[in-house]
Write a structure and sequence with these properties.
The chain is mostly helical. It folds into two domains: 220 residues, MetI-like (MetI-like fold); 283 residues, MetI-like fold (Orthogonal Bundle), CATH 1.10.3720.10. 73% of the residues lie in helices and 0% in strands. The chain is built from 24 helices and no strands. The radius of gyration is 25 Å and the shape is globular.
Length: 567
């Protein structure tokens, strides 16, 4: 064996070991620490945390609420997302690309921003309703402060998620099956019922499972709409317990977070069971089915779809913008009262808000850069590695993102409650613990497009360099990185947009001096300063939309499917 071959194998072993250590620290250790706190607190077997959680009536009430809004929100998201996917994918509607961009946008916006926008649209102090003369008297209860309001916004928030997954399945629908049914005299609704929907069952069921996990773990919408109505779900119950008692209740909150994880995993298991009941495999592949010609129905269908965009996106954001321009609660908006003081206050005068913008930008950029750098070698092993156990690496990276964010937040608290062993470094109650949680939770958002990029490039160049004697690190630096960097960087962009106004994780991990945009926004709304919260939300929505448009300029350099809002 030549020295170059030995060097290359040594570098591959070193890379594998480094990846395994990174995955261990980011994915495995927090979950193990969470389980240990529940079953072995202090190093001895104890069921105290489980008993405390099970004996508390609030646990069962919140569990029931979690399952109820999770199931109902999922059903609404599946119906909405599937219907839109069928129309957009299978018909000859025009303006498909801009429609998809706007329809997917709610998924890119933080849930608490969605909740705040809808609250400002329908509340008694709504500037929009006041302009129309339809605002109820001040002091009237906002109708969204209810389980129905939570379900409605969960369905709107995750309908685009269902849309993306079902649309991906529809684009692989074999043309010959549809054309055979049409040739046999079947109408389009018959084809839809007997051919298309049965074949799309796996995609719809998988989308429902992911939507259920997202609904169950959502903190922003139940926090904004449920806490004022005293309608608690498990994530908001955990938040209130930690806010009231601090680390003293970490054992009980650890049990509650695992309970959320169990509910979420029950949805995944249900999806697996339903998918195995029938064989949905397609024996051949072909071009996508020809789009259905809407004819005289094209204009009404397109009008209905764009009306949907107006209702779920434009109107709430317009209401949010109007609220950000009023000087105080309940003041009508007109030429004399309109002001930019709220923006000046949150950007330059409020210390916590200023720190929040700085912290969130730094955290988002750091998480994005780290994920891009790590995703390239990890993706190399997953996509081109030959070892079967590498699948475990992939599953471990996906674990912190697949589970509700509150689970990772509690696990991170427990893991870093004491100084890091052998170093004495304390990151508890600092911004660094939030960064750790972001790194663990969002790494998969860069890994998925990177692996997709590996699968879509020819490995011949890398293999030729290997034959010529180039070491692994040399091949990664000079050949692999330039080829997959666009896909990895697109994943980093998704991470930046997701982390910028994230709340679920940071709401449980923040401390004085480490506030994030989501935390300060939540604090403003809880304190009755809706105009300030609306100004912060408007800024983050603007940044998100500009980044989405900017990413479109580079879409031609990216593998298909990396940007979810691209047609």
């Amino acid at each position: 064996m030549s020295s170059r071959t030995k060097e290359s194998r040594g570098q591959e072993m070193a890379l594998t070991a480094a990846v395994a250590v990174a995955v261990l620290i980011l994915s495995i250790l927090p979950m193990l620490r969470l389980i240990r706190e529940i079953v072995f607190p202090g190093g001895t077997l104890s069921m105290a945390a489980i008993d405390a959680g099970l004996s508390n009536p609030a646990t069962w009430v919140a569990t029931g609420h979690t399952i109820f809004v999770g199931v109902c929100g999922t059903l609404l998201a599946v119906v909405l997302g599937t219907l839109v996917a069928l129309v957009v994918t299978l018909t000859d509607m025009r303006g498909r690309s801009p429609f998809i961009l706007f329809y997917v946008m709610p998924l890119m916006i933080a849930p608490q921003v969605t909740a705040l926008a809808w609250l400002q649209l329908f509340g008694p102090a709504s500037p929009f309703l006041k302009m129309l003369g339809m605002a109820p008297p001040l002091g009237t209860r906002n109708p969204l402060y209810s389980p129905g309001g939570i379900i409605l916004l969960l369905g709107i928030q995750y309908g685009p998620l269902v849309f993306l997954l079902v649309r991906a399945g529809l684009r692989k629908l074999p043309r010959e099956l549809v054309e055979a049914a049409r040739a046999g005299g079947a109408g389009w609704f018959t084809v839809l019922r007997t051919v298309i929907l049965p074949l799309m069952t796996p995609a719809i069921v998988a989308a429902a499972a992911l939507a259920f996990v997202s609904c169950v773990g959502n903190f922003g919408i139940p926090a904004f709409l449920g806490i004022p109505a005293n309608y608690l779900v498990l994530p908001t119950l955990i938040y209130q317990r930690l806010a009231g008692a601090g680390p003293a209740v970490l054992g009980e909150t650890a049990f509650l977070s695992v309970l959320i994880g169990v509910i979420a995993m029950a949805g995944i298991v249900t999806q697996e069971v339903m998918s195995r009941r029938r064989d949905y495999r397609i024996s051949s592949t072909s071009l996508p089915a020809e789009p259905y010609e809407l004819g005289r129905w094209r204009l009404p269908v397109q009008a209905a779809l764009w009306l949907l965009i107006v209702l779920i996106l434009a109107l709430p954001l317009f209401g949010l913008l109007l609220t950000s321009l009023v000087p105080g609660y309940g003041i009508p908006l007109n030429a004399k009262t309109a002001t930019l003081d709220n923006y000046r206050f949150v950007l330059f005068e409020h210390d916590a808000a200023g720190r929040a913008f700085f912290n969130s930008f730094c955290l988002s950029i750091a998480a994005a850069v780290f994920a891009v750098v790590v995703a390239i070698p990890v993706g190399y092993l997953i996509a081109w590695g030959q070892k079967k156990w590498l699948r475990l690496i992939n599953l471990s990276v996906e674990l912190p993102y697949a589970l509700p964010g509150v689970v990772l937040a509690i696990a991170s608290l427990l893991l870093f409650l004491k100084p890091i062993p052998f170093t004495g470094i304390q990151i508890y109650n600092t911004v660094w613990i939030i960064l750790y949680a972001y790194l663990a939770r969002f790494l998969v958002l860069a890994l998925r497009p990177t692996v997709s990029g590996y699968h879509q490039i020819d490995r011949a160049l890398e293999e030729a360099a290997q034959v010529a004697g180039a070491s692994l690190f040399t091949r990664l630096r000079t050949i692999v990185f330039p080829l997959v960097a666009p896909a990895a960087m697109a994943g980093g962009l998704l991470i930046f947009m997701t982390a910028l106004s994230e709340l679920t994780v940071s709401a449980l991990l923040w401390s004085s001096g480490s506030e994030t945009i989501g935390v300060v926004m939540f604090s403003f709304e809880q304190g009755g300063d809706s105009s300030y919260a609306a100004a912060m939300s408007a800024i983050t929505v603007s940044i998100t939309f500009v980044l989405m448009l900017g990413a479109n300029l580079f879409a031609s350099y990216l593998p298909n499917g990396v940007l979810p809002w691209r047609d």
